[in-house]
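Attaching the record inline, Q. Sequence:
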Amino acid sequence: MAAAGFGHLTGRFWHVVRGRSTGREEPPLTGPGVPVLLVHGLADGASVVSPLQRGLCDCGVGPVSSVSYNAHCPDIRAAARVLGGQVELACARGAGYPAAVIGYSLGGLVARYYVQRLGGDAYVPLVITLATPHSGSATALLAPPHPLLRQLRPGSALLTELAEPAKGCRTRFVAFYSDLDEAIIPAARGRIDHPDLEALNILVPGVGHLTLPLHRPVIDQIRSLLAALQQDVVSLCPPHGDWPQRDGPVTYGGAAPRPRGTRDSEDETEEADR
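Structure, as predicted:
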C-alpha cells in the first residue's frame, strides 16, 4: 500500500484517470478578474490539472492558467521562486488584482513556501491545496534519493522550515485532504496545522490521491471560494488599482477572519489519523 502510494505521489499512475482529459495542453482560459494559477505535482505535467482548469473556467475569475516548473530541480525552494515570478507577472498583466494559487500534491508545498517564506502573501490572498503532504508522508521514506522526494520525508529541513514561526503571513489557506489518500500516510499529514497560519482544513472522505482534483464536490467548493475572493477583491481594489497592503490576514467574501490555527469544526481528525 505504501509503495503504491509513492507511485501516486510521483504521478506514475496518472494514466489511470488521464482518460478523463483530452490529453491536449490547453491555452490559458480568459476571464474578467482575479488570476488563478494551478501548480502541478511531482512528475506531473499541465495535463494533470487541466480537468480542474476546465472546471473553473466559468466561475467569474480569470485567467486560469497552469504553472510549469522543473521537477528535476534540487528543491521546493527553487520551484517556489519560479512560481513567484509567474504570480507577479500574472498580477502585472491583470487589472491590478492579486492572484489565487491552487497547488496539487507537491505543488501545494511549492505554493505554501512561496507565500510563507518568500513574501508571496503580498500578491496571493488565497492558496488552495489538494492532497498536499504538508507534514510529509511515510511513503517518501521508501522513495529513491531524489532531492525533492527527500524534502517530503517527515522532519526534513524543508518541512522544518515551514514549521517555523510565520507571524504576519496574510494569505489564507484552504487544504483539501482525504482519509483514503494512498500517497499521504497518515492522512492527517495533508492538513495545515500551524499556529501562525489562517488555515481551513476540509476532509474529503473516500477519495484517492489522483482523483481528489477531479472530484466534483471539491471543484464546486473551489469555485465558491474563488467567487467569494473575486467579490471581496473587487470591493477592495477597483480594476487597475492597487491591492491594499494590510496588516493581518486578508479576508474575502465579507467573512470575518478565522482565528489563526483554528480547525474546521466538521473535520474528523481522529478518523483521518487511522
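The chain is about 30% helix and 10% strand. Residues 1-31, 246-274 have pLDDT under 50 and may be disordered.

More tomorrow.
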